[in-house]
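Q: Got a minute? One more chain.
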Amino acid sequence: MRILHVIPQFPYFGGRTIVGGHASCLLTLALAQAHAGSTVTIASCAPRGSARIDDRLDLHSLFPLRRAGTVKFGLRFRRAVVPWARTRREDFDIVHCHSGFADYFVVSSALKRALGLPTLHTLYCPIPATGGRWRTPIVRGVITRGARRLDGLAAMSRNVADSMRDYGLPGVEITAPPVDIHRFHPPDADAAAAHRAELGVGPGDCAILFVGNAKPQKNMIGVLHAFRRVKDRHPNTRLIVTTELAQSSSDEHLATLRRTMQELRLEDDVIQKGIIDDMPRLMQACDLLVAPFLDSFGPSDYFMAVLEAMACGKPAIASRVGGMPEVLDDTRGRLIDPTDEDALADAMTSFVADPEHSRAAGRNAREYTERHFDPARVAATHETLYTRLRNPA
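A: Always. Here it is, folded:
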């Protein structure tokens, strides 16, 4: 099958290095589809331009990825992708669009009208129940009309699907996101120990990992305050924080984090990393992942860093928001109220203080990801969905 994936932002940095939940999902899905024999093209905006990702997978960057997330960016993306795709209509059998926000249903609808091909849209974040531009009558009317013109609608979680149905969009299917369980896997002990030494983590230390940017929504301030309490009880803990994109966090947010670390006397205990070329290796070297994000409105309802850490056999602590209760429980980690720093500190302490409990939760987490997020299985599910859209009864 010849598949065109359309996604507004694709922060791809070569190899398997990508930033952002739904972009990471798409890269893993596209690679699985290419390995299964499909010819796959991703049309998006990438920071380093177009690229050949794999033998049967190409990335076409319409323009450089800058100032994403604005209405102006969305309009520019629509103006660019529709004529580009129209001139290549004969190259594709199906169009699969992806976005974190419902606004981009209008882009999918425009592609459907221009190409006349079966068109599916997967939404990765819930539509807010109240407030925001999505709830104004004019915007809601435009979004729902565009979505109803499509051949298929999909959601990454039950929570997102419920929000779409509540918004007035029928026929939503739930398609699990893929996690590359062959790259993200439990570590080789010697390799993990060597990487821990490179990071400056001692043999007896417990390494806690945070993956996110400096925006308040990611709640790194809460992580720092909770970590200070854990550090007071268990001095052999280290916190590793990554990643950071220039367009993701303002100078003000970064300055606030620096001040907080200084005030909490954590400068020597927090290992700060940039964009990671080999995220599996970093996760394998850590003992625990924390993701107390305040909501799931971007970039995905399932926190993909949590699923990747689970695939590495690591327990995770995440917020009881969005779709996270669908994938995480006390047998695989811990769900907490992200505004409760005491609860976050207690959850972190429970794993730091009991390594066997941590290892058991990690084993359960790995088993869960193998059952639910295997890329080949997810790609096969999409193949079935595409075939049904191309050949409706």
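A: The two ends are 19 Å apart (CA to CA).
Q: Perfect, thanks.
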